[in-house]
Write a sequence for this structure.
């Protein structure tokens, strides 16, 4: 199985400051068509996960442009340019290249 | 509006069975791959299974293989997960997820399964 390793596992950020979460996969997620089938999700307290980024760098519908995804192969990053209070929750990366699809452990973002 | 509504969760004894349902609306259900993902209390997300639009492809996580069965009724727009030989470690919220070719944008609200004596 592909192992997805996130870091850090927790993050405390002042509103208006940037934040970055890393996700590393145990094998390359780069497909022959140039796509990396990696999602980023945010699970707010008490809610279902919501898709933020798909194919490593594409923002899902309605996601604020302060969220961005980057990376290819085995290294991926989710960046929040200016954290807002509503961004609190747990962030997960997930690979959908292979079965079983696998998630990172989650990164808990708190507001200072 | 796309909606996914899970139901069927509850308290079941170890070794018991349960059938989860996910009622889909607001889109052409028969055209989409669908997934089940679970989350144990206070833990992370774990992929369980996936089903193709025509139900010919149904892979499973090793932890549930041989015990869980995913199926769908495209006429009724319902996704199912049949849970057999349940174990305490199967206790989790189970989410259904629509897969729009790399776009897993819609998740249900989840249904809680508790396996305990």
């Amino acid at each position: 199985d592909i192992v997805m390793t996130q870091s850090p596992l927790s993050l405390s950020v002042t509103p208006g400051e940037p934040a970055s979460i890393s996700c590393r996969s145990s094998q390359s997620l780069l497909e022959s068509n140039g796509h990396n089938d990696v999602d980023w999700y945010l699970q707010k307290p008490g809610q279902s996960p919501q898709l933020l980024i798909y194919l490593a760098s594409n923002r899902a519908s309605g996601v604020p442009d302060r969220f961005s995804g980057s990376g290819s192969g085995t290294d991926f990053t989710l960046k929040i340019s200016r954290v807002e209070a509503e961004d609190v929750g747990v962030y997960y990366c997930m690979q959908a290249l292979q079965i079983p699809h696998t998630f990172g452990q989650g990164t808990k973002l708190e507001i200072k | 509006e796309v909606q996914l509504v899970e139901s069927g969760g509850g308290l079941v004894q170890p070794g018991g069975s349960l059938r989860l349902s996910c009622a889909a609306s607001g889109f052409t259900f028969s055209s989409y791959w669908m997934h089940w993902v679970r989350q144990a209390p206070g833990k992370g997300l774990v992929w369980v299974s996936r089903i193709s639009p025509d139900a010919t492809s149904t892979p499973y996580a090793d932890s549930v293989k041989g015990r869980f069965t995913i199926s769908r009724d495209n006429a009724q727009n319902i996704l199912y997960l049949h849970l057999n030989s349940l174990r305490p470690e199967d206790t989790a919220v189970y989410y259904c997820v629509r897969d729009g070719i790399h776009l897993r944008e819609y998740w249900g609200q989840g249904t809680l399964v508790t396996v305990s004596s």
About this structure: Residues 12 and 34 of chain B are 25 Å apart (CA to CA). Chain B has no helices and ten strands. The beta strands of chain B are 3-7, 10-12, 18-25, 33-39, 45-51, 68-73, 78-83, 92-99, 106-107, 111-115.
